[in-house]
Amino acid sequence: MLAALFDKAPLFSFKGTGALSSNSSSFLRKYFDMTAIQQYGLVTANYWAFTLTDGALRMLVLLFFYQLGYSPLEIAMLFLFYEFFGIVTNLFGGWVGAKFGLKVTMDFGLFLQIVALLMLAVNPDWLTVWFVMIAQALSGIAKDLNKMSAKSSLKSLVAEAKDSEGTLYRWVSLLTGSKNALKGVGFFLGAFLLATVGFEQALYWMAGMLSIALVVSMLLLDAEMGKAKSKPKFSEIFSKSANINALSAARFFLFGARDVWFVVALPIYLASVLGWSHTEVGFYLAVWIIGYGIIQASAPKLTGINRGQLPTGRTAMLLAFALATVPAVMGLTLAYEPKWILLIGLALFGVLFALNSAVHSYLIVSYADADGTSKDIGFYYMANAGGRLTGTVLSGYVYQEAGMAACLFIAAAFVVIAGALAGRTETIN
Q1: How far is residue 170's CA from residue 358's CA, in Å, rounded to a whole number?
Q2: What is the pTM of this model?
């Protein structure tokens, strides 16, 4: 697909300084100056490469330490710094991206992920909880720098397109949906590599792949993309927009609702209660994430964009209320037939959550200030990381203390809150 993007005539021109910094040679500038759609292809490929390793690393760590006998709460704590530093990164990373450009934040994110992978590829005796938490902290910083950079870049890349809001919705959905599909592949890859080449060799393979992506990104990504025309003040890291504040709060509860049962509780439940092997757990979660990503990429068609309808805060509210019924019913019926309740419930949850997430991702980019977009998007994804952190810790604690049904009831309550908050935002039509 990316090859086709690079071969097409540009949909619209990208008024930047080219894909390279001002210090690059004129020879490379001449042959690698890129249109907006080609920059979009490069950003997407970069995001894909990172996401593949991020999904694989999460599954590697989760299954490897479960295999070593760690409790659900201890495994959840391994991801504590990953999520916590995501909050910090989004808060400050958005300001850095607006001031110095998104190339800086995206490339640095790739570099930090390589460092995190190599940190874990050490003597197994070194892999204490604290050591892994530090490596996961670097990975969390890397992930949110990469995600914030990719999402923020789209605002400037579609600015001159015809039907810019419709194009923005399609591009955001495609980027996010394809990313999540590849994250699912990463889940399976992590479980498969753990079962075949082992923990250490899997990390070396992924670090090598990301190193190639980093070199390509350093050479070709536009150095001016995302820079604010008016240099942002550090005091502007907090959003002053009522819409963005409400949507950010909704995002906190939406992703907290997913992670409170999906991140730690579900894989351990599948392995310990249903007796699935590591490969089976990884494969199933991979298929779920891939399907989730496909639905997310198709969200513009499914939510009526072909009829000229763009989503609003009310759209997000109604989708959230529909989503809340799924974990509520699952929690009430889980004891009767856990295997089929989980399989059917997860499928329904995946479809509705994908639509919720796609609409949220579009709304935040649309609401964000065109000059220095990354400040607003960074603030929003800070809330996202906060929700993931809360959900991750609750996933381990609640599952250990009260079981899967309790996790599902909390998820339902969180989604209802998310819907009520999203409904407070103004329409953009």
Answers
A1: 10
A2: 0.70
